[in-house]
Design a protein that fits this description.
By secondary structure, the chain is of the alpha+beta class. The chain folds into three domains: about 50 residues, no CATH class; about 55 residues; about 120 residues, Double Stranded RNA Binding Domain (2-Layer Sandwich). The protein contains seven helices and six strands. The strands form two sheets. The protein has a three-stranded antiparallel beta sheet. A hairpin with a 2-residue loop joins strand 2 and strand 3. Helix 1 crosses helix 5 and helix 3 packs across helix 4. About 5% of the residues have low confidence.
Length: about 260
C-alpha cells in the first residue's frame, strides 16, 4: 500500500451512484463492481468456500465501507414525518422543514399505492422532485380507456400558466393517446425522438420510470417521469420535457427583450 490519502468519502459511493442513475436515466447494471446489485453476491462453490474462510479473498471492500445499507427498513403510511426525515437523512438527503411537508404528502400518496416503501422508492421520489421544479404546464388529471378491439382514448386536464385546459385524443395505444391529447392541449405537435420505460424498484407494485426525448429545431429536451402507473409516468415525462422546452424559449425571449431595452436606452 502506498502512503497516500485521497479523502474520498467511501460511504457515499453507493448513494451517489444511485442518485446519478436516477438523474441521468442510466441503469446501474447488476454486475457493476461495488454498486451493482450482485457486487457482494457469491454464487459458485469455490467463491462461497473462500468467503467463508476469509472474506478478503474476494472482497477488497465491504458493503458497509461503500455505504450499502445492512438492513432494508420498510416505511409505510403511518411512519410519520420524523421517520421519513430520519430515513432520508440516512440516505444522504438534507431536507428542510418546508420541503419535508411537501415530500410527506407525496410519500403518503405513494404509501397508499404500495403499502410498503423501500429505500429505492425514496430515491426515486427525491429524484422526481428534483426534476419537477420547472412547471409552466402541470398535470391535473388523466384518464385512459383502452383494451382489446377498443380504440385507445385519453382524456387529460392540464393547468397551463394557471389556466385549466381539458382535451381528449385517440392513438395507436394508451401512451400515444396521452401524447396526442397533450399535443392538442398545447396546440403543438412535438417531435418525439425516443421513448423508453423501465422498472426502477422491485415487485409487482414497482415504480416505473419513463424517459422521453423531444426536439425543437436543433435543441433536444429529455423528460423523466415516475409513478406506480406507467401511463401516468409517461405523461409526466412528456410534460417534463415540454416544461424544459418552454423554460428555454421563455428565457431566450426574456434575454432578447432585455437586450432590446438596453439598446433603446
Amino acid at each position: 500500500m502506498l502512503a497516500y490519502k485521497t479523502n474520498i468519502k467511501t460511504k457515499e459511493i453507493y448513494n451517489t451512484s444511485h442518485m446519478v442513475s436516477g438523474l441521468t436515466g442510466l441503469v446501474v447494471q447488476p454486475n457493476k463492481a461495488i454498486v451493482g446489485a450482485n457486487a457482494f453476491s457469491h454464487e459458485s462453490g469455490i467463491h462461497q468456500d473462500g468467503m467463508l474462510k476469509d472474506r478478503n479473498t474476494y472482497e477488497i471492500m465491504t458493503p458497509d465501507i461503500v455505504g450499502v445499507p445492512k438492513t432494508k427498513i420498510v416505511l409505510g403510511r403511518h411512519s410519520g414525518r420524523h421517520g421519513l426525515k430520519a430515513r432520508l437523512k440516512s440516505l444522504g438527503y438534507k431536507i428542510e422543514e418546508g420541503e419535508l411537508d411537501k415530500l410527506y404528502v407525496l410519500f403518503t400518496e405513494l404509501a397508499d399505492k404500495k403499502k410498503e416503501v423501500y429505500d429505492d422508492d425514496l430515491r426515486v421520489l427525491m429524484g422526481d422532485e428534483i426534476y419537477s421544479e420547472i412547471k409552466f404546464v402541470h398535470l391535473e388529471q388523466i384518464q385512459v380507456h383502452s383494451g382489446t378491439n377498443t380504440i385507445p382514448t385519453a382524456t387529460i386536464s392540464l393547468k397551463v400558466d394557471n389556466k385549466l385546459i381539458h382535451e381528449s385524443a385517440t392513438g395507436d395505444g394508451p401512451v400515444d393517446a396521452i401524447f396526442n391529447s397533450i399535443d392538442r392541449a398545447m396546440n403543438t405537435k412535438y417531435l418525439v425522438e425516443s421513448y423508453q420505460v423501465r422498472s426502477v424498484t422491485e415487485g409487482r407494485q414497482a415504480m416505473g420510470e419513463a424517459l422521453i426525448r423531444i426536439r425543437d429545431g436543433k435543441n433536444r429536451f429529455t423528460g423523466r417521469g415516475v409513478s406506480t402507473d406507467i401511463i401516468e409516468a409517461s405523461a409526466k415525462a412528456y410534460l417534463h420535457a415540454i416544461n424544459l422546452m418552454e423554460y428555454e424559449k421563455r428565457s431566450e425571449k426574456q434575454e432578447l427583450e432585455i437586450e432590446d431595452v438596453n439598446e433603446k436606452g
